[in-house]
Amino acid sequence: MAPIALTPPNGGESVTDLTHAGIEQALLKSAPSQLKSASLTNSITATPPPERETQPETTEPTLAELDASKIQCTYSESPRSVPAVGSAEMASQKVCTDHMVQARWTVESGWDAPTLQPYGPIALAPTASCLHYATECFEGMKLYRGHDGKLRLFRPELNCKRMLMSTNRIALPAFDPKELLKLIVKLCATDGKKWLPKDRAGQFLYIRPTMIASDPALGVERPKEALLFVILCCFAPMGDMSGGIKLLASQDDMCRAWPGGFGYAKVGANYGPSLVAQGEARKRGYHQILWLFGEDCTITEAGASNFFVVWRTKEGSLQLVTADLNGRIVLDGVTRRSILELARSRLNSEAPSSSSATTESDLESLEIVERKFNIFDIEEAAREGRLVEAFAAGTAWFVAPISQIHFRGKDIDVPMAKGNAGAYASTIRSWLQGIMWGSDGMESHEWGRVIDEE
Q1: Selection from 370, 351, 367 nearest residue 359 by Cα
Q2: What are phi and psi of 112, to 5 degrees?
Q3: What is the mean predicted confidence (pLDDT) over 338-348?
């Protein structure tokens, strides 16, 4: 059944107004400093602020904001051993580093002083809000050991701003993204030297900032207590997807996200319900689900990654196409954004200097397009020989070439010009690797934040 459209009585606020107003109030109470930046406020609400009369200043006392300078450090007296590269222990994704960061928030006082402490279990009441109402969000980041010996983060400020948007979408407290980034840097500086030694150039640790509602009360209402924590986890070396991944297009009974929902936010509720379909896809020999939406089978995401296609239009123009963000059902991925920015600066056929845009490769320049498109467009391009390549992109998969898409009983074979990958996916991947690992002349790129090791 379609959602019921509600008409506000007496010309009242629309549902969109209510969502924005609710987030605005959360900012006002838990991080009023964030309301000083209109651009940031707009980005975290994912909708433009409505026209409204100026509200009178509140006399409500301001709660303590998140402040990384107040961090209290307690170092582990039982350090863990670092798993060997390629070991089953590393691949288990269960081994974390010696320390973690925590910060508690309450509706009465705001943010407590953060702590850096030994890694260990978190105590939660069985009635904790996050266990019942999916009041939980997270980010996925990586700490890289560069080929130049330095530790780096890749555009971490974008992850921190996106996490602020996610927390506000599910009624969790706000914070200054810069303070979260300082806490992440502190943890990386503390554990990075041991867990990513210099002889492991090209390796990484996975960073998982998380916020959960720890309020120990049953009841469908805004949580009155929350816990922010950050951990570093060992992952196996970045998988070789050079053979191409196979996608199973979602069926009519599946839907990952919908307009007016929360598909644009990185919240736990986006992922749990997708695991059934993902498991079935793998049983049938596919790596992930290609998520479609609506009767026209609009393409949204590939698994938990953004989807890109390179094709020629019927008029012969070469395009790099990915879903736009207008419907708010696609995640604004950091890798996605970076690919688009790199492509526009180095490959864009519409750029004034397009003749020199491809000096770092022999690739033909192309048009960069963010728009709605569907699986039938892919089918038609493949049938007419216009499909050039496709790839998925995200922090976990990085840039993974796609070799096949199965849709309604038929396989769509996707070309891979270099045998194991498409030419554009391979080139873009190498550009990003250079920034992340400080190689190929990218040691000083502005997207790579160097961490000073303790």
Answers
A1: 351
A2: -75, 170
A3: 96
Q: What is the CATH number of domain 68-234?
A: 3.30.470.10
Angle 141-147-150 (CA atoms, 0-180°, nearest 5)?
A: 65
The pLDDT confidence band at residue 21, using thresholds 50, 70 and 90, is confident
Q: Whole-angstrom Cα distance, residue 431 to residue 429?
A: 5
Residue 362 above 80 pLDDT? yes
Q: Residue 49 and residue 325: Cα distance in Å, rounded?
A: 17
**Is residue 224 scored above 90 in pLDDT?**
yes
pLDDT bin (cut points 50, 70, 90) of residue 318 is very high
CA distance 415 to 402: 9
Contact 382, 413 (CB under 8 A): yes
User: Does position 390 have pLDDT exceeding 70, yes or no?
Assistant: yes
Strands 99-106 and 387-394: unpaired
The CA distances from residue 287 to 270, 355, 400, 402, 406, in Å, are 18, 38, 11, 10, 11
Domain ranges of the chain: 68-234, 245-443
CATH code for residues 245-443: 3.20.10.10
Structure tokens at 169: 């979408």
Rounded Cα gap, residues 335 and 434, in angstroms: 14
Tokens standing for residue 226: 């929350």
What are the Cα distances from residue 225, in Å, to 20, 96, 130, 169, 349? 22, 25, 11, 16, 51
pLDDT > 70? residue 247: yes
pLDDT category of residue 83 using cuts at 50, 70 and 90:
very high
